[in-house]
Amino acid sequence: MPVNNYKQLLFIGVGGACGAVTRYSVTLLIISEGFPFATLFVNLIGCFLLSYLSYSATLKGLIPFHAFVPLTTGFFGSFTTFSAITTETVLLWKDSYILAMIYILSTFFGGLLLCFLGYVMVRKQKESV
Asked: What's the angle, vertex CA 90, arms to CA 29 and CA 24, rounded to 5?
């Protein structure tokens, strides 16, 4: 592996560490009992921001590639987490299958909606320029 790839992996790891710390910080700020609001919030916001970054040519042009990949793959890859969703769904299911279904459906459809919203916002910005 070339030296530049090792640097890129290091930067992705740093981005991942920052995303994980940010995600954990959000769970400390959003106290939720009985429903995993913090994970839902993190995943929905992460869906929107990652979509917005990915589809915005303007931002892609401002952010060098060597920084873009650590931000998207590193930071958002660890900031949002499917493993937490599935684990929390199973835990909710044990107590209330209705809450579990609300959680998984709102995560999935809310994520799709916000991802699409990020895409639409970038498209509208392109049209106005």
From this structure: 20
- Are the C-beta atoms of residues 36 and 88 closer than 8 Å to each other? yes
The residue-averaged pLDDT of 66-70 equals 87
Please state which of the ranges 2-11, 31-40, 93-102 shows the lowest mean pLDDT.
2-11
pLDDT of residue 3: 54
State the pLDDT confidence band at 98, using cuts at 50, 70 and 90: very high
**Does 78 score more than 80 pLDDT?**
yes
18-29 CB burial, b ≥16 within 10 A, e <16:
bbbeebeebbee
* Residue 73 assigned as binding residue: no
Tell me: is residue 39 an annotated ligand-binding position: no
